[in-house]
Amino acid sequence: MPETTKAARLRRSQIDILLKEIESEGLKDDSVLVAGAFNAQLFETHLLSDMASTQRATSYARKSSDGRLEGIEQRDRRGRSVLTVETHRFDLHSIHDWFFRLGRGQMVKKYNGELAQVVFGGKLLEESVFFQPSRHYGINKATEKEEFMKNLCPAWADRVLYNEKLSDLFRHDSFCASGLYYGLVAEKKYVGQHKPVALHATICLK
């Protein structure tokens, strides 16, 4: 099980508060949709470990004079830096943008588990994520093209969740179920550091 960071525990507690509020407001039996910037992040420690293994890289820790960890660097067998992590840097160097876009992010999807206790616990539901991470994007000044920024690890920070009651309205027949869409808005256009995430569905009002 990937290590849970302090920030991840905070996000989970905030979602638990949200779920309790929904129940206390008497909305438990209503159709509920919750959307926004959950700021969910990848299990970065697990990702770093796997990157070192697959690239046969050696990890080096950089510490301050008082022993605090300041950064981690991975170098391949030729001594080339392939990954650098610091407080405000997450950089896969030459493969950074390619790696997180590959297969619309499916290479790193297995590290996308922060909301699992909500989604897989049946508290709220989510459509399958078949789109690339929603943050953080910027414009490369040299190429004038959009790419993933290297200040934070790209992640599916923005999500759309809903409860079982609303799911039933999405799927009242096969035609409506086939019309579901869950993905990015402006996938191929720069609209800011975060790309909005949209859920399109036909709802049957009974």
TrEMBL record:
Signal peptide: none
InterPro entries cross-referenced by the UniProt entry: Endo/exonu/phosph_ase_sf, INPP5A
One annotated GO molecular function: inositol-polyphosphate 5-phosphatase activity
Protein name as annotated: Endo/exonuclease/phosphatase domain-containing protein
